[in-house]
């Protein structure tokens, strides 16, 4: 499968739903259920390998896990590559393509400093990733402001970041954990016609809002973990 196949599925108003996986077995289940794309969750993959999220797992192990997932399915795979593991853009692209992935999620948090990268710096880095990848990778650029900031207060900077990332060559922008429907709608309008990746919000029609992609993140892994812990208590 090519990046063009994945890119074509990013249609505002007709969102691509991604139940994120963490190993080959869960990837096969997603494909068997009829989903056209498999996406990984860095938190869930790292946890399955025995590490915490936030680039605490060795990059090599994360890429190996991604390769096993890509080998297990025939649909396009997009990999949550966190903040790029400190790799130069060309090397990051090379290693992602070696896994068989045709897409990646890249966040603007610097895990060394635990702060967001300056917008111009991160946009320049994304542009270098795009140059190295050409059309071979669909880039989903994560905007991390809403992880800690009050949605209304950080919205202007989030829009600035999103526009800069799209201008740098990102195919889609992802205001992760923005669960205020009114603020999300404003964000979508502000970056239109750019594609936006959202998270599910109860009782909210994200398609009508113009969302192009919906990620479940680590939700299914968390549900599985809670179910497994409950069964263990019963036993």
Derived structural class: alpha/beta
Strand order of the largest sheet: 1-10-9-8-7-4-3-2
Distance N terminus to C terminus?
A: 43 Å
The helix content, as a percent range, equals 40-55%
Task: Give the key terms.
235 residues, Carboxyvinyl-carboxyphosphonate phosphorylmutase, Pyrv/PenolPyrv_kinase-like_dom, two-stranded antiparallel sheet, ICL/PEPM, eight-stranded parallel β-sheet, alpha/beta, TIM Barrel
Task: Give an account of the 3D structure.
The chain contains ten helices and ten strands. The protein is an alpha/beta fold. The chain has one domain (3-234): Phosphoenolpyruvate-binding domains (TIM Barrel). The longest helix is centred in the last third of the chain and has 17 residues, at 151-167. Pfam families: PEP_mutase (PF13714). GO terms for molecular function: catalytic activity. This is Carboxyvinyl-carboxyphosphonate phosphorylmutase.
